[in-house]
């Protein structure tokens, strides 16, 4: 049986970044840049004022004191978006507003709170050093400088940077299309009436959300019955995608047909991984489309999505990092037993006195959905026959982007 890391490598090897496309910035949130993107312009674009005040030549103010103010002649005004129509000379000043281009010849701006105006003259009562209150052209970004490396994910800050530096459209990788299929005779779409022995289908709901969060386009294909013809027909439809994710029907029960059809209609790479939850996990191809057959238990489906499907999606997006960030935390609360499979324990991370601690969220069996809900990390419990005690350090996968500071509850 494969270990998790081996299974991950086998899966990643089957995916490459999708083709690049140019899209407008307005559509780029969550996408991944396909090439190193360079600044078309420098930032700031031109020398400009950091304050509302007066532009001047610093050397004119050298003698200024509170008792003997220097008088400068006000020769114009420069609101943001305008420029002074002539260079400034000795003894002159111009009203200037934040962000407005510094007039030629001026080398400092004095804040308006520090001066008084006497008809068309400005009274300056202290010497102003050259470069005061000026934001210089190119001090943030040089023209041609790299803004974002290939593989960077585009969030709000990246969008602002690209917008200011004049990059639009932006080259990104095509979004993967992921079809999602639930399997099981007992399943009823959420919101419909339940018959005896039936349950509400929840894995598609989870997977559509998780696929979307991972940056792909999710297409839910509903529920396939546990019979060959129906499953075959739905899997054939699902094939028109970059990845098919099914849930259920991959263990050793009599009705576990996903494996069987994968073997007949495509090619099975492997179907079990040495982990808990989620041992039965099928990976292979349906025709030429990769298929990940996740286990049916809701928690197993969620954990195996995180470990195997999300990295595959990130790989297709061309993301520089495909795996979740792994940190070390102190186990908190209960002791955790090691097993002959790698365990993934749902836990809540929090910081206490400068130490990162994570407390298991409760019952760890694979049908307990409430303990999935409270988790912001999965603790990775290595294979073994010991006990990891509260307080010992264990690796944890961060499930959110950025640090998910949870409270203790
Ligand atoms: P299976 O892997 O098909 O044997 O399913 C394992 C368990 O997960 C069973 O209790 C199923 O009823 C449940 N299950 C399977 N698929 C889903 C689903 N899409 N939504 C909710 N529960 C499911
Ligand atoms: Mg089933």
- Extended strand count: 28
Largest sheet geometry: 6 strands, mixed
The number of helical runs is 7
Placed side by side, the strands forming the largest sheet appear as 7-4-6-5-9-8
Mean pLDDT: 95
Low-confidence stretches: none
Alpha-carbon distance between the two ends: 37 Å
Shape: elongated
Give the bound compounds: adenosine monophosphate, magnesium ion
Radius of gyration, taken over Cα atoms and rounded to an integer in Å: 31 Å
Secondary-structure content class: alpha/beta
Helix content: 10-25%
What percent strand?
25-35%
In short:
This protein is 18% helix and 32% strand. It contains 7 helices and 28 strands.
Model description:
This protein is an alpha/beta fold and 409 residues long. It is 18% helix and 32% strand. It has seven helices and 28 strands. The protein has helices at residues 4-12, 156-164, 203-213, 228-238, 257-265, 298-317, 370-373; strands at residues 20-23, 37-38, 48-49, 53-56, 70-78, 92-96, 108-111, 115-118, 121-124, 134-135, 146-148, 170-173, 177-183, 187-188, 199-200, 217-224, 243-247, 266-272, 275-276, 280-286, 289-294, 326-331, 336-337, 342-352, 355-360, 377-381, 387-388, 393-398. The strands form eight sheets. Strands 7-4-6-5-9-8 form a six-stranded mixed beta sheet, with no helix packed on it. Helix 1 (4-12) crosses helix 6 and helix 3 runs parallel beside helix 6. The chain is elongated. It starts with a helix and ends in an 11-residue tail after the last strand. The model has no long low-confidence stretch (mean pLDDT 95). Magnesium ion (MG) is lined by residues 183-184, 248-249, 255, 296.
